[in-house]
Here is the input.
Amino acid sequence: MAEYSTRDLTELPAGLPVPVDDGRAAHLTGLRVPSVALQATTGEQIDLSAISGRAVVFAYPRTGQPGQPPLTPDWDLVPGARGCTPETCAFRDLAAEFGKHDVRLFGLSTQQPEYQRELSERLHLPFPVLSDAARTLTDALHLPTLSIGGHVLLARLSWLQRDGRIERVWYPVFPPDRHASEVLASLSR
Here is the structure.
């Protein structure tokens, strides 16, 4: 039996490398989100620039699937790569609390919609996950990316937007499983 078949994707292993702030997200605060329709796990096309009020968008590299190998054997050694499923679960678990603050949640990755739909169904997500597989939004906002295993993936970051304008950015995000609590706490200040 392969080692990956027993990996628990919902837990973070000890000793993950901590990502450093390389400044690649410093330009985002204050920007208007460009009008780009993205395929959502809900089956609709969502344009983040058209979302009224406040929304949190959490971008992540790539979620795994139970029993499947990671994208590369050294996935856990890439700073900021591991932890997409625990981060998504944390936002899921706090979704009602974000709702009490009138904040909508959106996940974002460059994975294909079918892959994201499986994740959404398996984890019972109450919010849409958006596919930027063509990297249209990623390129328009110059979001930080990682090139791993022949794939261009989003580096883990989040932003708070109001009426389509980015008000605050979290980058880098670590540890990812506690990030949703950090974002939620900032809304109360």
About this structure: The beta strands are 37-40, 45-47, 54-59, 103-109, 129-131, 145-148, 151-154, 157-162, 165-170. The mean pLDDT is 92. The two ends are 49 Å apart (CA to CA).
